[in-house]
Amino acid sequence: MNIVVSMKQTFDTEATITLSNGKINSAGVELVVNPYDEFALEEALKLKEAAGEGEVVLVSVGGEGVAKALRTGLATGADRAVLIDDPALADADEWAVAVALAKAIEQIEYDVILAGRMAIDDGSSQVAVRLADALGLPSVTSVLKLDVDGKKATATKEIDGGTEDIEVALPAVFTAQKGLNEPRLPSMAGIMKSKKKEIKSVTLAELGFSADDLLPKTNIQEFSLPSPRAGGHIVDGEPADAAKELARLLREEAKVI
Amino acid sequence: MSGTTYVYNLRDLKFILKEWLDMGKLLSLPPYAEYYDADDIDFIVDNTFKVCRDKVAVVNDDADKIGVKFEDGKVVSPESFRDAFKAVNEAGLGAGNADREVEAHLPYTIVQSNYEMLCAASLAFTGYWGLTTGAISVIQNYASEELKEKFLPNMCAGEWGGTMNLTESGAGSDVGANVTKAFPTDEPGIYKIKGNKIFITGGDHDLCSNFIHLVLARIEGALPGTAGLSLFIVPKIWVDDDGGLGEPNDVVTTGIEEKMGLHGQPTCSLSYGENDGCRGYLIGAPPDENGKASGIRQMFLMMNEERLMIGIQGLAVTGAAYLHSLAYAKERVQGRKFTDPKGERVRIIEHEDIRRMLMMQKSCSEAIRALVLKSCYYYDLSHDSEDPEEKAFAEGMFQISNPLCKAYSTDMAWLLISDAIQVFGGYGFTAEYPVEQLARDCKVLSIWEGTNYIQAQDLVGRKFTMQKGKVLTDWMEDIGGFIKSHKDKEGYGREFEVLSGAFGDMNYILEEVSAYGEGDRKEMTPLFATRILHAAAMLYCGRLIIDQALLAGEKLIELGEDHFDAAYYKGKIASARFYILNIVPQVGAIRRVIGLGDASAIDIAEESFA
User: Fold this and answer.
1) Staple partner for B316: which of A86, A144, B120, B481, CB 3.0–4.6 Å?
2) Considering its fold, how many domains does chain B have in total?
3) Can you tell me the distance from the alpha carbon of B276 to that of A119, in angstroms, rounded to the nearest whole number?
4) What is the largest CA-CA distance in chain B?
5) Is B258 a catalytic residue?
6) Which residues contact B460 (CB under 8 A, 6 or more apart)?
7) What is the CA radius of gyration of chain B?
């Protein structure tokens, strides 16, 4: 069983986001593996362990810093990693990332592709499904349970108000939702072993792209921080009167009902 | 709010490991060079932080609120401990780190850095493998190959626990009063053991399938006192030749203590050989023809490492209390500024006395972190350096620092956590906030593994005179030389003036100690020993933290005031300044007290204590 895991490095969930010159300021911010990608990696490792053979390959886009996230994945148990490292992707959008990843993954043998259901930084949930599209594969998102049997898989996915079981032919792309598993942590021995595992760095040219092939199709006009939360309003009075007043406020002031 | 909120100062640890100590040099030494380099430090400590935050800190509430129980003769730990214990062992953060022979082991400095993070997550929980590490060291250093093979693999894997058994009801600090006996059997090296031990940390519980007790006992005919004690490996369940578990070895847990703190850590009373069926393996040779045995020397290898670990425990809880009180002070709004009594209400971090208490905690915990990790670094060099001169120097520096680490860190823990509680005000006294638990949990640290007075005796009686005073001379020269070569550093004139004064005060104290030792009031030395230890610790901590501040100053110039990390470096300089100008002058006060030479505590009649 060969599994590819698409991995992204993101800000630590507890990092304070600030803006500098209209961009997100990353100076001094702790960077981590996207938490949903940890679920994806754990599932990949479990699938490989259950199969008793195969390899888990990590793929990512980014610079030298991203290699740290990949090494965390290697220390956790992945076998090798491919990093698409090209300055032309510095402002890449989800489409460009997905297309670049697809090209790199085409060169890897795989039965299953796993990714987090979204990245916690931009939260767009696009890369994995675009990746499936680029590779011409089926995809199942927000997976809570995954059973692989030969050339097909049964995935339980989260839907509004419940779950849905989907049977899909392999290879396919699955995105991991929280609850799929309990990710393991790297061990000291794993950290040491990871130093000897390969992180292969490739450029867009090496993937067969020319400079203009992956120019972003989206244009970010502005970043802004959420407005500070306004103070709360306690509605006094008898419950019945207070409820009426609350309904009025919601309708007339908040305009939400 | 609860103990499950994990707080730890990873930035200060990284400053020490990546900027202050020359870890590149240490990691280039033969045991490590093939496996690690300085770039791995981030990776290792970040991962440990995560294990602590996600797997260990989450059991700290259970450790305190549920605690460990003694039911039907069995020690039962909280249910949540199982996953956490498994996670610690799987992450490679458990007892296996004591194995200094295994390929690719980590240097002690990194092992103990990880240990500080673990203790900050749940001090009580770390007791489930803390003593196993010491037991592994003793077995690895002194036991036969056969015994090593029999016991170490399962101990290193966390399957079996290890303990140290010194204390008996009549033999606490007075270890030589041990009455546990050992009788030879027909099998060479195997003795029957009979006696009772108390206060055995991790002596029994349900996370391990067997316990390998290291027991001090006296073989018939051996000398009285510590000189006649031998050390035995006594498994709770006998280990068969094939490595499997055999019959119970007549080791019975008779109870656990109800304690002020560390509720989650079992402190056991153990009975050995109640039915004449307890056997143990003698470590090393039996007593010589004069009845002199080697058990206490063997046990002291374990004890020395444990003492350094206790210093780290003290640091860990102090650091946690500081960060909790800091977070609270930034949020809690009370009163108005002293300089603006009619202004808006402010957060308490804006009050002068709160800042004093926060700085006290910050500067002392950073100074103590410098002390204990520098000591670990020397410990590593004393093992691994290829330069015999450096190795010997490092050994001496470790020896003299060890009692300082143990006693100063843990004495200060109690005082500094008291400040943390004070910052919280009335809420700090409630169980709703985590600092009261830290206070309860930390108190034993100044007592166990040799009380802090025993540390003071060790410093003044043994370490000051070690190698005919060479160790002390090296240590004083290290401090004096440092002051001399940096005293003209621009911007630090007052700090070096105070440090230089304290150095002179320490010289005076040492002369007084020597005079007391040679005079007719020898009891004055033990009377002042604790204060001498504190003076030595404050002087040395001052030397170390200003060294850090000088480095921080250079970094600040290099990176500029607008760099995101500038606040950390400025904070480091402020810590050093506060420590030297507010704490180190106490060395002078101790000198004055010793100079006054008041003996009223000795001379007062016992009945007048009423």
Assistant:
1) B120
2) 3
3) 65
4) 87
5) no
6) B513, B525, B529, B532, B533
7) 25
pLDDT tens digits, one per residue of B462-512 = 999 999 999 999 999 999 999 999 999 999 999 999 999 999 999 999 999
Q: Are the Cβ atoms of A191 and B54 closer than 8 angstroms? A: no
Asked if pLDDT for residue B1 goes beyond 60, the answer is no
Q: Are strands B333-336 and B345-347 parallel, antiparallel or unpaired?
A: antiparallel
The answer to whether residues B121 and B177 belong to one domain is no
Q: How far apart are CA B447 and CA B218, in angstroms?
A: 25
Q: Are B216 and B229 in contact (CB under 8 A)?
A: yes
Q: How far is B381 from chain A (nearest CA, A)?
A: 22
pTM equals 0.91
Residue B332 covered by a domain = no
The residues facing B193 across adjacent strands are: B182
- Taking only the tens place, the pLDDT of each residue in B529-576 is 999 999 999 999 999 999 999 999 999 999 999 999 999 999 999 999
How many other β-carbons are positioned within 10 Å of the β-carbon of residue B406? 35
Are B189 and B53 found together in one domain? no
Q: Which of B168, B305, B449, B512 is catalytic?
A: B449
Which of helix, strand or coil describes residue A32? strand
Say whether both B126 and B167 belong to one domain: no
**Residue in chain A lying closest to B35 (CA):** A192
- Comparing CB atoms, the residue among A27, A71, A189 nearest residue B43 is A71
Which pair of structure tokens corresponds to residue B214?
């290291």
Strands A152-159 and A139-149: antiparallel
- Alpha-carbon distance B192 to B179, whole Å? 14
Q: What is the pLDDT of residue B3?
A: 44
Superfamily of domain A3-202: HUPs (3.40.50.620)
| Å between B591 CA and nearest CA of chain A | 45
How would DSSP label each residue in B109-178? HHHHHHHHHHHHH-HHHHTTTHHHHHHHHHHHHHS-HHHHHHHHHHHHTTSEEEEEE--BTTBSS-GGG-
Q: Are residues B60 and B16 in the same domain?
A: yes
- Residue B169 and residue B103 share a domain: no
Q: Tell whether B109 and B164 lie within a shared domain.
A: no
Task: Write the CATH number for B277.
Answer: 2.40.110.20
Q: With contacts defined as CB-CB under 8 Å, which chain A residues touch B40?
A: 191, 195
Q: pLDDT below 70 — which residues of chain A?
A: none
Verify that B127 and B168 share a domain, yes or no.
Answer: no
Min Cα distance A191 → chain B (Å) is 7
**Which residues on adjacent β-strands are paired with residue A147?**
A154
**CB B499, CB B542: distance < 8 Å:** yes
What pLDDT is attached to residue B4?
63
Q: Which residue has the tokens 């440090």?
A: B499
In chain A, CATH 3.40.50.620 covers: 3-202
Domain boundary pick from B293, B314, B339: B293
Per-residue pLDDT tens over the stretch B315-344: 999 999 999 999 999 999 999 999 999 999
Boundary of a domain, candidates B267, B293, B319: B293
Structural domain contains residue B51: yes
Distance CA(B30)–CA(B28), nearest Å, equals 7
Residue B417 in contact with residue B369, Cβ under 8 Å?
A: no
Q: What's the pLDDT band for B2 if we cut at 50, 70, 90?
A: very low
Q: How far apart are CA A181 and CA B81, in angstroms?
A: 20
Please give the residue that has the higher pLDDT: either B402 or A195: B402
Chosen from B9, B10, B15, B43 to mutate, greatest number of chain A CBs within 10 A: B43
Domain region containing B283 = 160-293
pLDDT, averaged across chain B: 95
Average pLDDT over residues B375-379: 97
Computed on alpha carbons and rounded to an integer, the radius of gyration of chain A in Å comes to 22
Cis peptide before B287 (omega within 30 of 0): no
Whether B76 and B167 map to the same domain: the answer is no
